[in-house]
Amino acid sequence: MLGQTPLTNFQTRDVESLLHPYTPIHKLKTIGAVVMERGEGIYVYDTQGRGYIEGMSGLWCAGLGFGDEEMIEAATAQMRALPFYHIFGAKSSEPAVELAEKLKEIAPVPISKVFFTSSGSEANDTQVKLAWYMNNALGRPNKKKIISRIKAYHGVTVMAASLTGLPGNHNGWDLPVDRVLHTDCPHYYRFGTEGESEADFVARTAKSLRDLIEREGPDTIAAMIAEPVMGAGGVIVPPKGYFEAIQAVLDEHDIILIADEVITGFGRTGNWWGSQTLNMKPKTISAAKQLTAAYAPLGAVMVPEDIYQSYVDHSATLGSFAHGFTYGGHPLSCALGVKAIEIYQKRDILGHVRTLMPLFEQRLKKLADHPLVGETRFCGLVGGAELVADKKTKRSFDPKQGVGPEASRLIEQNGAILRAIGDTIAICPPMIITEAELNELFDRFEKGLDQAEAWVSKEGLRTT
User: Fold this and answer.
1) For residues 18 and 35, what is the distance between their CA atoms, to the nearest angstrom?
2) How far apart (Å, rounded) are the C-alpha atoms in residues 341 and 360?
3) What CATH number was assigned to the domain covering residues 71-346?
């Protein structure tokens, strides 16, 4: 069903030259590709001159929108001063040092050192290597398994994709690899049983985690990694008390909690970190995306002093800390990270997000009444609307019908770019969006959903 009407700005050159990620590439010559040419504020414009509200902040990342002059000036100044240098072999650059200090200042838990990567995937991949390195240093060579969750998303490198709990990231890729375990997804709407309260659901997921740990042996498990809000799994917000219950089980078995803040960091949930919003107490943290407001690639791993000291001890034994990326700590990216945090602070982006949150919640709750929508979910300025064939029974559409992707395409035709995650339509606008712009975004969202509902009814998709 996807892309029944080809896009009018079909770009043959683009189709022939690029291997597009997360795209049904077997259909690309039919559906075409939209080529973006410029951006301004919350809008992006394609090569045909059409404007769209970028309702996903690109890929959950362009928190300051497009064309911010302060960011452009910071990039230009850094390019003139030092366009590249590395941080291998005890070298460094002022932007890398300054950004590490800023991250320590705003971290939700005590942090001693920051390791820079080029992406969130590399950050989460590094988290696993560091957990292994730490346990080798501590004389625990068998404590190496990592727990993730069903529907989690942690990236696309071999290890990060293994941590990811989505079949599409495993099928055809020979994943997941060994040492990765998956526990329950904390989605009460989908996985709660009839008559079960949210509190009972939380207790059941905590017991399931405990059973997994005891079955595998706590002396074989190094860490659990979790997103405060599960993004690419469908914007899943855990029930109240979930992380407190999970944390108690992990602490009891000496298993560290890694917070994947790649999507939820830097104000997205109404606090600096999703960990603060969801009452997580992680030992280490992964960050990326809004770290630079997406103006350059950068990821980071943040670790406390006690864990860092285990690295020091093992480096003394082995002769070196042999891990790193050519562009980790790139001076351009770090300068933009410094400037982004400065802008978040001086423009009170957190306060702006909090001001918008009631309207965001109101408009999403209104969408829950739409005949296509089974549930809406939200936290701060990130949300999702799950489309269902039957609201009463929560019956999903057959994935082959492509209802979510078709709804996303129709929304795009109305001038708003959102993202279909299966049959959940995700929304994650730039944090600079105004109330009027946010209302316009939801108006376009609703128009697209109305058209999708008409299409579903015409095709008889609820009965097939």
Assistant:
1) 12
2) 24
3) 3.40.640.10
Range 201-205 average pLDDT: 98
pTM over 0.85: yes
Q: Nearest 10 degrees: CA dihedral of 308, 310, 315, 316?
A: 120
The model's pLDDT over 232-255, given as tens digits with 9 standing for 90+, comes to 999 999 999 999 999 999 999 999
Give domain limits for the chain.
12-67+348-463, 71-346
User: Whole-angstrom Cα distance, residue 456 to residue 451?
Assistant: 9
Tokens linked to 179: 């040492």
**Structure tokens belonging to residue 399:** 């994935």
Please tell me the distance from the alpha carbon of residue 271 to that of residue 379, in angstroms, as a whole number. 11
Amino acid at 97: V
CA–centroid distance for 271 within its chain:
16
Cβ atoms 100, 254 nearer than 8 A? no
Residue 6 confidence class, pLDDT cut points 50, 70, 90: very low
CA distance 439 to 436: 5
DSSP assignment, residue 56? T
d(CA 140, CA 78): 44
d(CA 187, CA 233): 10
Q: Are strands 419-421 and 424-427 parallel, antiparallel or unpaired?
A: antiparallel
Give strand pairing partners of 384. Answer: 377, 426
Q: Strand, coil or helix: what is 358?
A: helix
The residue that leads in pLDDT, 16 or 202, is 202
Question: Is residue 388 a contact partner of residue 423, using CB atoms and an 8 Å limit?
Answer: yes
Q: Examine residue 304 and say whether the peptide bond preceding it is cis (omega within 30 degrees of 0).
A: no
Q: How far apart are CA 145 and CA 178, in angstroms?
A: 8
* SS3 assignment for 410-432: HHHHCCEECEEECCEEEECCCCC
Say how far apart CA 462 and CA 121 lie, in whole Å. Answer: 38
For residue 408, the SS3 value is helix
Asked if 163 and 225 touch (Cβ cutoff 8 Å), the reply is yes
- What pLDDT band is residue 3 in, cutting at 50, 70 and 90? very low
- C-alpha span between 268 and 228 (Å, rounded): 11
| Among 22, 18, 7, 5, CA closest to 422 | 22
State the Cα–Cα distance between residues 251 and 459, nearest whole angstrom: 52
CB 289 within 8 A of CB 61: yes
Residue type, 256: I
Q: How far is CA 342 from CA 116, 336, 348, 366, in A?
A: 19, 10, 10, 35
Partners of 66 in the β-ladder: 41
CATH number for 12-67+348-463: choose from 1.10.10.10, 3.40.1190.20, 3.90.1150.10, 3.30.565.10. Answer: 3.90.1150.10
Radius of gyration in angstroms for the set of CA atoms belonging to the chain, rounded to a whole number? 22
